[in-house]
Design a protein that fits this description.
Elements (H helix, E strand, L loop, with lengths): L1 H26 L2 H27 L14 H29 L7 H29 L2 H30 L4 H28 L6 H14 L3 E12 L2 E10 L5 H18 L3 E8 L9 E2 L2
Parallel strand pairs: 2-3
Antiparallel strand pairs: 1-2, 1-4
């Protein structure tokens, strides 16, 4: 489903690019140019997301024993970097237009065409953002958020160009383009920052960590204590590991039964998680972990 959705995103991105590019060619509006330029980024990002998802679904192998899920984060980082490049280009074009303004043409038709492209981005962006969250796919989530941010900037562009058509205030066109550039710079910065945190093995959200600890505390009958909990995300997979203290007289098989039970319960509560438990004797207890109830 994820790869199919990314493929549709690429196709729709090409359609939107054609519409917004056509709107710019009809009007010569630098604000609509900024909107079209961001659509080029959408197409490149959709292609990168499709590639990343294809790589990420490959199973673990000898050289990548933890799988290939992190490929998705590279797609999100690339998308953020491309957004920043686009913003710089838009700022340059807007500055050039301020110094040497060009006459605007066919604003009515241009606004209609651009509005149609914006509606396509709105509905598919909402779908991708929801699906990315559901599948815990950074690539799809980033693509969806980018499309939705594109909708916000597109609405601003449409309002600005509409005001130009109504009032004749030509300066509103490059000014709106500059505002669009500043907005997508902020979006690109947040996108890159979020993806880099994930590449640096950022821990799972606090509520997820607390859920794991609660399961261990309630269902590790026969153990004494659990400590040194660690979590990290890699695409849709959450890696979890911790130390479990058991009675020194417990057999390996008895300890293994406890571990199996905990692994099953945690993986049921957190689908697509991988749990590793290190069993320790009472002498390794730290007395500041999770007591088994």
């Amino acid at each position: 489903m994820a790869i199919r959705s990314a493929f549709y995103s690429l196709l729709l991105g090409l359609v939107v690019l054609a519409l917004k590019g056509g709107a710019y060619l009809l009007t010569h509006s630098v604000a609509l140019y900024s909107d079209a330029l961001e659509s080029i980024i959408n197409v490149v990002a959709a292609g990168a997301a499709l590639t990343a998802l294809w790589v990420a679904q490959r199973p673990a192998d000898a050289n990548h024993p933890y799988g290939h899920q992190k490929a998705e984060y590279f797609s999100a980082v690339l998308e953020g970097a491309l957004i920043i490049v686009a913003a710089i280009s838009i700022l340059f074009s807007a500055y050039t237009d301020l110094r040497n303004p060009q006459p605007l043409e066919a604003l009515g038709i241009g606004l209609v065409v651009s509005s149609a492209a914006t509606l396509i981005n709105l509905f598919y962006g909402m779908y991708l953002a929801r699906l990315g969250k559901q599948l815990r796919s950074p690539a799809l989530a980033a693509d969806g958020k980018h499309l939705l941010s594109d909708v916000v900037t597109s609405v601003g562009v449409l309002v600005g160009v509409g005001l130009v058509a109504l009032t004749g205030w030509r300066i509103l066109d490059p000014v709106m383009a500059m505002l669009v550039a500043l907005n997508i710079l902020w979006v690109g910065y947040r996108l890159v920052g979020s993806s880099l945190n994930s590449l640096l093995d950022e821990a799972a959200p606090v509520e997820v960590q607390q859920q794991i600890k609660s399961i261990v505390s309630l269902h590790a009958e026969g153990a004494l204590e659990a400590h040194d909990f660690r979590t990290r995300h890699a695409g849709s997979v959450t890696f979890i590991d911790f130390h479990l203290v058991v009675d020194g007289h417990m057999t390996v098989e008895e300890a293994h039964v406890i571990c199996d039970r905990l692994e099953q319960l945690i993986e049921e509560a957190l689908p697509e998680s991988e749990v590793t438990i290190h069993v320790e004797p009472p002498s390794k207890a730290k007395h500041h972990g999770i007591l088994v109830l």
